[in-house]
Write a structure and sequence with these properties.
The protein is of the alpha/beta class and 454 residues long. The protein contains 13 helices and 18 strands. It starts with a helix and ends with a helix. The mean pLDDT is 91. Keywords: ATP-binding, DNA-binding, Helicase, Hydrolase, Nucleotide-binding. It comes from Latilactobacillus graminis.
């Protein structure tokens, strides 16, 4: 295959500023190039066409031209620039039976999977609401396979790198005959033109009308939730006729409104893949815990519960801020010297290695920030949240954190504790949300039992 053809394939469905494109494709003549203005005047305001944000009057160059600060990280766009792209032509070999996964779905999972196939086939917009641990990824397989078998291009995106790193190997295994690409900000691997792409939602700014099916996981998670830039990136990465699927355990008010007015269809699964309910949190007040750990001691109630927990489970202990990690670790080590304790946070250079080690069974306690609130599956871990009243622990975050427990059928009753100084509305609503999902789950369990009776 000639170099020009290879470069054309690498360019398909992607978008650049004119400056970026000339530096990347300078040696190739590609007649399929399309251009569109980088800015438009709408209601007397200058609007960036890459991120759809109004350009501030303060972002002005010395020569009088404006630039967009909102999406500056993806290359500067200046007034008068063009956005350059090459239309997606799906130039890859199709596989008749791309799904190589040999697992089975429960009856409820199969119903949700059938709906996903319908959404992909009819190019609809859909929300799959499923509790943490319901097996959302496996429910997507049939829909992804349907798209790939038709020669279509599929993207699975998530707001956080950790979630993408969890998803990618599972999708690689499930679609072993299909070339795939993982994209995130700090990756070093070169870009490849593949029918299946797994990426962070930020990476979708690099695409324009590229995908036939786009699946966005964890749409309630930071930084995607309530972020109009990332919502725009998702929409622009979709082809004009595209299946768009949102996955969540805690749908936002905006999603609920879109469902209620008929903009989105919905399917729901309120029970985990192993058929058990969600562990419901125990809420306990612990006052002046920060003062206690500064003296390298543990509050008595926390010490007793940790000791009791470690008899049968390991522990994932969440704290509000990075500076809490070391103080809590020292307090545990001094109070319980035989316990193996590690810490992890988003900027930790050893983050991936520490998570992998804990997943493999190394260590008794892993103290973490919200970096592990979602996208990580661990076997037989209890979950404690210290300082659950902190602003970082909103309703959706607390629901997701509680969902780290009980994910294995053999350990479905793992403990969950929220420790607080002030009993906040977020704590109350998170507990209510989990109980509400369990009520729905019990009704499903009751339905199954009634059908199974002779």
């Amino acid at each position: 295959m000639g170099g020009e053809m290879i470069e054309k394939q690498l360019a398909c469905g992607r978008q650049w500023s004119a400056t970026q494109f000339s530096s990347v494709m300078n040696n190739y003549s590609l007649p399929q190039i399309k251009q569109r203005p980088a800015f438009q005047k709408i209601d007397q305001q200058l609007v960036c066409q890459r991120c759809h944000q109004v350009v501030s009057e303060q972002t002005c160059l010395p020569d009088g031209r404006y630039y967009c600060a909102a999406c500056l990280m993806f290359g500067r766009l200046v007034e008068g620039d063009q956005l350059v792209y090459i239309p997606e032509e799906n130039q890859f070999a199709t596989v008749e039976q791309p799904l190589t996964w040999s697992g089975t779905l429960t009856a409820f999972q199969a119903q949700a999977a059938e709906k996903i196939v319908t959404v992909v086939t009819n190019k609809q917009q859909h929300v799959l609401t499923a509790v943490t641990g319901a097996g959302k990824t496996e429910m997507l397989f049939s829909g992804i396979a349907t798209a790939l078998a038709r020669g279509q291009r599929v993207c699975v995106a998530a707001p956080r790198v950790a979630v993408c790193l969890e998803l990618y190997p599972r999708l690689q295994t499930a679609f072993a005959k299909t070339p795939s690409m993982l994209m995130y900000g700090t990756q070093t691997a070169p870009y490849m033109y593949t029918p299946l792409v797994v990426c962070t939602t930020h990476q979708l700014f690099k695409f324009y009308h590229a995908f036939d099916t786009v699946i966005v996981d964890e749409v309630d998670a930071f930084p995607y939730v309530n972020n109009p830039l990332l919502a725009t990136a998702v929409k622009q990465a979709c082809k004009p006729h595209c299946a768009l699927i949102y996955l969540t355990a805690t749908p936002t008010a905006k999603l609920r409104h879109a469902i209620n007015i008929g903009q989105l269809t919905e399917s729901e699964l309120p029970i985990r893949f192993h058929g058990h309910l969600l562990p419901e949190p125990h809420c306990r007040p612990i006052f002046r815990w920060r003062q206690t750990i500064k003296r390298h001691k543990l509050p008595r109630v926390l010490q007793a519960l940790i000791q009791d927990c470690l008899k049968t489970q390991r522990l994932l202990l969440f704290v509000p801020q990075v500076h809490d990690l070391e103080q809590v670790r020292r307090s545990i080590v001094k109070t319980l010297p035989k316990v193996a304790v590690a810490t992890v946070h988003a900027s930790d250079p050893d983050q991936l290695a520490k998570i992998a080690a804990f997943r493999s069974g190394t260590g008794d306690i892993l103290i973490t920030t919200t970096v592990l609130e979602r996208g990580v599956t661990l076997k037989n871990v209890a979950v404690f949240v210290l300082g659950a009243e902190h602003i970082v622990f909103n309703e959706a975050v607390l629901v997701q954190i509680a969902g780290r427990a009980g994910r294995d059928k053999a350990y479905a009753a793992n403990l969950v504790y929220f420790f607080y100084t002030d009993y906040t509305l977020a704590i109350k609503r998170a507990c209510q949300q989990i109980k509400y999902q369990n009520q729905k789950g019990r009704r499903l369990q009751s339905t199954v039992r009634s059908v199974q009776r002779p």
